[in-house]
Design goal:
The chain is an alpha/beta fold. The protein contains ten helices and twelve strands. A hairpin with a 5-residue loop joins strand 5 and strand 6.
C-alpha cells in the first residue's frame, strides 16, 4: 500500500515537471519572421554557389570599366568619347558600302549648302548607318534662319535634307539695338545689316510678338506705308505710328482699322498728315485731336489776334 502511494506520488511529480518544462519551452520559442527566413535561405544559397573560373577577373574588369565611365561622365569627356565611337562606327560602315556619298539639300536660300551640311553634322566620313536624322534636325532648327527641317536617310548611300527658312519680315528695336526678325517674331539676325535697312521698323517691348499685326495693317494701305517711319507698341497694349515728318499718330486699343480709315479720309480731305502738327490723336472713336507744333501754334495765335483786331476795326471800336 505504501509502495503504491509512493509510485503515484512520483508519477504526479514527474507529470508536473514535464508540464512545467513544456510550458517554459513554449514561452521561449518565437517563430522566425519571413524576412529572417528569407535571409537564411539566401545565405545558404550564396554559401553553396559555385562561381565560374574567371568570375573574379570579370568582376574586376566591370569595376574598372564602371569607374572609368563614371570618371568620363563626371569630367565632361563623354562628347569626345561618343565622337570617337561614332567615328569608328562610320569607318566600319563605310568599309561595307554605307558611306553617305550624295546629300540632297532643298529649301535653302539664305544659308549656303556648306552651312546646312555643317549644321546637320554631315562630313566626308559620315555613314548612312550611324547618321542620326533626329539629332541633325534638332541642330538645324536651332539655327535662327531655319523654321523647320526634314532629314531622311536613303539607303545605301544617300541623305536628304529639306529646310524651311524664315523670311526677314521687319526690324525690331529693343534696348537701343535693332535686330532683324521673322513674321513669327523670332530674331534672325542680331545686328542691323544693310540688306534689311528698308524693312518696316517696330519698337517696344512685345512688338516682336505682334509684328505681323501692325505691319500687315500698314502694308495694306500704300498711302500710309509711304509716310510711316516706325510703329511703336505702347505698354504692350496699343500702337503709335511715327511718320517720316515727325508726326506722332496715336491709335486706339481696338478698332484700329476704323481709326486708320478716319486718318486717311482726313488726309485726303485736309492733308492732315502734311500739316504743321506734332500729334494726331485717334484714341477716342469718332473724334480726332491734333497738337500744333510750336511755330504753328505761334502763327495760330498771331492769326487769331489779327482777326480780332480786324473785327474791332470793322465795328469801329479799335483805339
Amino acid at each position: 500500500m505504501a509502495d503504491a502511494l509512493g509510485h503515484a506520488s512520483q508519477s504526479m511529480v514527474r507529470r508536473q515537471r514535464l508540464a512545467s518544462e513544456a510550458a517554459a519551452a513554449e514561452e521561449n520559442f518565437q517563430r522566425p519572421s519571413a524576412w529572417a527566413f528569407w535571409l537564411r535561405r539566401l545565405s545558404i544559397r550564396i554559401a553553396n554557389l559555385h562561381l565560374p573560373r574567371f568570375a573574379g577577373l570579370a568582376a574586376t574588369f566591370i569595376l574598372f570599366a564602371g569607374t572609368g565611365l563614371y570618371g568620363i561622365q563626371r569630367g565632361g569627356h563623354w562628347p569626345v568619347v561618343n565622337g570617337w565611337l561614332l567615328s569608328v562606327g562610320d569607318q566600319a560602315a563605310n568599309a561595307v558600302g554605307l558611306q553617305a556619298k550624295a546629300v540632297r539639300i532643298t529649301g535653302n536660300r539664305q544659308l549656303a549648302h556648306a552651312d546646312i551640311l555643317d549644321l546637320a553634322g554631315i562630313g566626308p566620313e559620315t555613314s548612312v548607318l550611324f547618321f542620326d536624322p533626329d539629332a541633325a534636325r534638332a541642330r538645324l532648327k536651332a539655327n535662327p534662319w531655319i523654321a523647320d527641317a526634314t532629314v531622311q536617310k536613303l539607303y545605301p548611300d544617300q541623305l536628304q535634307v529639306a529646310v524651311v527658312e524664315r523670311e526677314p519680315f521687319a526690324l525690331w528695336q529693343r534696348d537701343g539695338k535693332i535686330v532683324v526678325i521673322g513674321a513669327d517674331g523670332a530674331v534672325i539676325v542680331d545686328h542691323l545689316d544693310s540688306r534689311f535697312q528698308a524693312m518696316p521698323l517696330v519698337v517696344g517691348r512685345g512688338a516682336d510678338a505682334r509684328v505681323r499685326e501692325i505691319v500687315d495693317l500698314i502694308a495694306d494701305r500704300p498711302e500710309l506705308s509711304r509716310v510711316v517711319r516706325a510703329a511703336v507698341l505702347v505698354a504692350e497694349r496699343r500702337w503709335n505710328l511715327v511718320l517720316k515728318n515727325g508726326i506722332d499718330v496715336r491709335l486706339p486699343d481696338t478698332n484700329v482699322e476704323a481709326a486708320l480709315a478716319d486718318l486717311l479720309r482726313l488726309d485726303a480731305e485736309k492733308k492732315l498728315m502734311s500739316r504743321d502738327v506734332t500729334m494726331i490723336d485717334l484714341r477716342v472713336p469718332g473724334r480726332v485731336a491734333v497738337r500744333l507744333s510750336d511755330d504753328a501754334f505761334k502763327a495760330h495765335e498771331t492769326a487769331m489776334r489779327d482777326r480780332q483786331k480786324a473785327r474791332r476795326r470793322a465795328a469801329g471800336t479799335d483805339t
